[in-house]
Design a protein that fits this description.
The structure holds 2 protein chains of 2 kinds.
Chain A: E1 7-9, H1 14-19, E2 25-26, H2 27-39, H3 42-60, H4 72-89, H5 93-111, H6 118-130, H7 139-156
Chain B: E1 5-6, E2 13-16, H1 20-32, E3 39-41, H2 44-53, E4 58-62, H3 70-78, E5 90-94, H4 102-108, E6 112-115, H5 120-132, E7 137-139, E8 144-146, H6 169-181, H7 185-192
Parallel strand pairs in B: 2-3, 2-4, 4-5, 5-6
Antiparallel strand pairs in B: 7-8
Helix pairs in contact in B: 3-4
């Protein structure tokens, strides 16, 4: 049997040394400061979301004969992914779900080598309606639209990107 | 009970993410925690160039960068021979479409992987965890990075400590007897041989 060379180090990082110094702030104070900073980015977030959606619309509505150009789907996927992050950051739940659904659809189309514009268009129109400051839809209307988007995914039998893969590695809880 | 304090003043962060909004968001959060304003880049190549000439205390990377997978950058960091660069804590951020890259980032030597959107609470707790928790650094032919096994250090809750708690009466006795005999087995065999 061959032995596998293995070295084990016990390094002390500078981050650990800094954190162990006296002083500093409590978790509550740190989180309050950070939350203030995040909230101050709401306007930038909305502007960036609007910009990302506009770029998806430009790509989507340029489809010829119901087909998108190669490479378009990758751009749509990237922009939709950014919208998911921003919508989730500021709790725009409907927009987040619609953008996730668009990611599922774009990813599914890419993996099958398809370039249908129709399922993308219906998502883009739904997202526009759900944009903050947009149509001001009721909760029931949002749920109904999301249900219809789910039917689009079912039609193509696309698997959701959130299914099967672990999202993160969790450390054990830290005691206060 | 008074909350413990964490002094992150002076800690430097390298933040690599293709999305400008996320870079701004995370930068604001770490400043709120008392850390220095992070150095930000949108590509892995630019991050590598920075790391060759600057020391940083924490690395926050997006799972998929425009020019490379973060796993590639992490492996490069973890295989650096000199400097404490290879030991730096690395937190990887995954967006909705990047969940499938979790295993790859972990196997490349990331300390923790966090799902976007990142809330201040989640990010603070992860940074506090990597700062406070000492993990051995494993180096083999195929892997270099922190020990991937998490040990739960919490005390047991006092329930179900005995093997007999898990089974019914009769079979429980057998298991208890087998368990009590088990430590003697190697001794008996040693004497016999």
């Amino acid at each position: 049997m061959t032995r596998v060379a293995k070295k084990i180090h016990f390094p002390t990082t500078r981050l650990a040394e800094l954190a162990a110094r006296p002083g500093g702030v409590t978790r509550t104070t740190a989180l309050e400061e950070a939350a203030k900073s995040v909230q101050s980015m709401l306007d930038i977030g909305l502007e960036t979301t609007h910009h990302a959606l506009t770029s998806i619309e430009t790509i989507t509505y340029s489809a010829k004969n119901g087909e998108l150009q190669p490479g378009d789907m990758q751009n749509i996927l990237r922009q939709a992914d950014h919208i998911v992050t921003m919508a989730a950051t500021f709790n725009f739940a409907g927009l987040e779900e619609a953008a996730k659904s668009l990611c599922d659809v774009a990813d599914g189309l890419i993996s099958r080598g398809m370039s249908d514009a129709a399922p993308v268009i219906v998502h883009v129109q739904s997202m526009r309606l759900m944009m903050p400051g947009g149509a001001g839809l009721s909760e029931d209307a949002v749920a109904h639209i999301l249900g219809e988007l789910a039917r689009v995914r079912q039609h193509y039998e696309f698997v959701r990107l959130s299914v099967g893969a672990p999202a993160e590695t969790d450390p054990p809880e830290i005691a206060e | 009970m008074a909350q413990s304090r964490l002094n992150l003043r002076g800690a430097t962060t390298l933040l690599v993410d293709s999305d400008a909004f996320t870079r701004g968001l995370i930068a604001n959060m770490v400043r709120g925690f008392g850390m220095e304003t992070p150095t930000t880049y949108d590509t892995g190549a630019a991050a590598k160039a920075h790391l060759l000439h600057h020391y940083i205390d924490l690395c926050i990377l997006e799972a998929v960068l425009p020019d490379m997978e973060c796993a590639q950058l992490i492996r490069w960091i973890r295989r650096q021979d000199k400097s404490p660069l290879r030991f730096i804590p690395i937190i990887v951020l995954t967006s909705y479409t990047q969940h499938r890259h979790v295993a790859m980032a972990r196997d490349a030597g990331a300390n923790l992987i966090v799902k976007k959107p990142v809330s201040p609470r989640v990010l603070y707790d992860r940074i506090a965890w990597v700062a406070k928790t000492s993990r051995p650094f494993i180096e083999t032919a195929k892997y270099a990075g922190p020990d991937r096994r998490f040990r739960t250090l919490e005390p047991l809750d006092g329930k179900h400590k005995r093997e007999t708690d898990f089974v019914d009466g009769e079979s429980a006795e057998n298991i208890a007897e087998q368990s009590s005999q088990a430590p003697l087995e190697p001794t008996k065999k040693a004497i016999a041989s």
